[in-house]
Write a structure and sequence with these properties.
Largest sheet: 5 strands, mixed, barrel
Shape: globular
Number of strands: 9
Strand order of the largest sheet: 5-8-7-6-9
Length: 278
């Protein structure tokens, strides 16, 4: 597949978005995962921009992913929120998944919150738990910075040490404590999908030190760190991973779990956004 022309495409995309922003200047990006889209309804004085209206950007096809940017005020900060994301299992390349992150950076965003729904590998976790990402294992087999074009945006080689910002993680822990919302913290493992993992794979991932697993996030975070964006990652556990406690993940209803935790998710995220120093 032909590589993106990022140096010309990103300014074109940014110009189209800026027209719709009508003077809004987002400082924080948020990507909302499966079942977590309702947070976007809390954004005040908002502008909605469907992904399909942004030149050079792919659209979302995943269930519950609306597929639009929602831009406005959240907890006193100007945010640009992806209500839904792009996945590799939808047929998107790694750079197509990274593109909206690089676009947010082009718009002036310097910090990113990624969220998703995950399966729990750690047997002490339960569906309905929130889990802060301490680190990740990219097991997609892909990297959005591979190639010639991303090297024009920033240095090709960059550190992923403390990819999930320690200061932001402390803000998240303190926010959860103040709200009385229990918060796990662990290592997330991202796969390409769309098939769920085998029980043997989950056992292997547990030995690697992974606590949760899903099919998103890693490529977005790599893209963000490539251009120097600070990152916070938050997951909602919607099921136990394959074989953990004899579980088959398809026996659970992830969207029902997300709906049951919607109010606490919105309270927690709004408190974190309010307390973050960007």
């Amino acid at each position: 597949m032909e590589e993106m022309d990022l140096t010309s495409w990103l300014p074109e995309s940014a110009k189209a978005v800026e027209v719709r922003l009508a003077g809004r200047a987002p400082e924080l990006g948020i990507i909302l995962g499966s079942g977590l889209g309702p947070l976007a309804e809390s954004i005040g004085d908002s502008a909605q921009i469907p992904f399909a209206d942004v030149p050079h950007m792919r659209t979302s096809t995943a269930t519950s992913h609306v597929g639009r940017f929602v831009c406005g005020d959240l907890a006193g900060k100007q945010v640009i929120c992806m209500q839904g994301r792009l996945h590799g299992y939808e047929g998107n390349t790694s750079q197509e998944i990274a593109y909206p992150v690089w676009l947010m950076h082009e718009l002036g965003v310097r910090a990113l919150i990624v969220t998703n729904a995950v399966g729990a590998i750690n047997e002490s976790y339960r569906p309905g738990d929130f889990c802060l990402m301490r680190d990740h294992i990219n097991f997609t087999g892909r990297n959005p910075v591979a190639g010639l074009e991303p090297n024009k945006l920033a240095d090709r080689f960059f550190t992923m040490y403390e990819a999930y910002d320690p200061e932001f993680r402390e803000v998240a822990r303190a926010s959860a404590l103040k709200l009385g919302i229990p918060l796990q913290e662990g290592v997330y493992l991202g796969l390409l999908g769309p098939s769920f993992e085998t029980a043997a794979e989950i056992q292997a991932f547990a030995r690697w030190g992974a606590d949760t697993v899903a099919m998103s996030v890693c490529e977005e975070v790599i893209a963000a760190r490539h251009v120097g964006m600070r990152v916070l990652g938050m997951s909602l556990v919607v099921n136990m991973a394959c074989g953990v406690g004899g579980v088959n993940p398809l026996d659970d209803d992830p969207l029902k779990v997300a709906q049951s935790r919607e109010a606490d998710f919105c309270r927690l995220m709004e408190r974190i956004v309010a307390e973050m120093t960007i």
